[in-house]
């Protein structure tokens, strides 16, 4: 089975990478880019029967820094 | 309007970050993790009326390295 964990910075947390992308897009001539936020997506190939609670535990303990990041789990 | 661009490594491309996460999950005692792939998710805050073709152009020219990465666009 597969699971996808999408990790994004919490609102209000400064995102220098997103800012750099925004500036670069402007430099390439793309108008109307009001904001850019970059996050991570982690795709896990898991043994069948792995529960969402286990994936949540993985996210809490390793995949996400829950002080500054939110995460969302999708079982695929 | 918002758009989300999900960027993942193409199959077959070595993913050292994914491998490191897999080893770390094993070290924390999570069994049954057969594989981990890490990618990026970029959330764009765009002017209304921005077309998917423009977002596709942004992805091709800046956001993704199309030699080793695939990307998927969602208009939100």
TrEMBL record, chains A, B:
Q: Is DNA damage a UniProt keyword of this protein?
A: no
Pfam family for this entry, one: PurS
In its UniProt record, a GO molecular function of this protein is: phosphoribosylformylglycinamidine synthase activity
EC number in record: 6.3.5.3
For this UniProt record, give its keywords in alphabetical order, as a comma-separated list.
Answer: ATP-binding, Cytoplasm, Ligase, Nucleotide-binding, Purine biosynthesis
Q: In which pathway does it act?
A: Purine metabolism; IMP biosynthesis via de novo pathway; 5-amino-1-(5-phospho-D-ribosyl)imidazole from N(2)-formyl-N(1)-(5-phospho-D-ribosyl)glycinamide: step 1/2
- The record's principal subcellular location, in a coarse class, is cytoplasm
Organism superkingdom: Bacteria
A single GO CC term for this protein reads: cytoplasm
- Gene3D superfamilies, A to Z: Phosphoribosylformylglycinamidine synthase subunit PurS (3.30.1280.10)
What GO terms in the biological process aspect are recorded for it? 'de novo' IMP biosynthetic process
Q: What class of enzyme is it?
A: ligase
Q: Where located?
A: Cytoplasm
Q: What does this protein do?
A: Part of the phosphoribosylformylglycinamidine synthase complex involved in the purines biosynthetic pathway. Catalyzes the ATP-dependent conversion of formylglycinamide ribonucleotide (FGAR) and glutamine to yield formylglycinamidine ribonucleotide (FGAM) and glutamate. The FGAM synthase complex is composed of three subunits. PurQ produces an ammonia molecule by converting glutamine to glutamate. PurL transfers the ammonia molecule to FGAR to form FGAM in an ATP-dependent manner.
Extract the NCBIfam families matched here. Answer: phosphoribosylformylglycinamidine synthase subunit PurS, PRK05974.1
Q: Subunit arrangement?
A: Part of the FGAM synthase complex composed of 1 PurL, 1 PurQ and 2 PurS subunits.
Under what name is this protein listed? Phosphoribosylformylglycinamidine synthase subunit PurS
- Which gene name does the record give? purS
């Amino acid at each position: 089975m597969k699971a996808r964990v999408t990790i994004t910075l919490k609102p209000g947390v400064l995102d220098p990478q997103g800012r750099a992308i925004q500036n670069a897009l402007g430099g390439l001539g793309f108008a109307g880019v009001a904001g850019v936020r970059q996050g991570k997506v982690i795709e896990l190939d898991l043994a069948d029967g792995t529960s969402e609670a286990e994936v949540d535990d993985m996210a809490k303990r390793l995949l996400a820094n829950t002080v500054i990041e939110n995460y969302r789990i999708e079982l695929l």
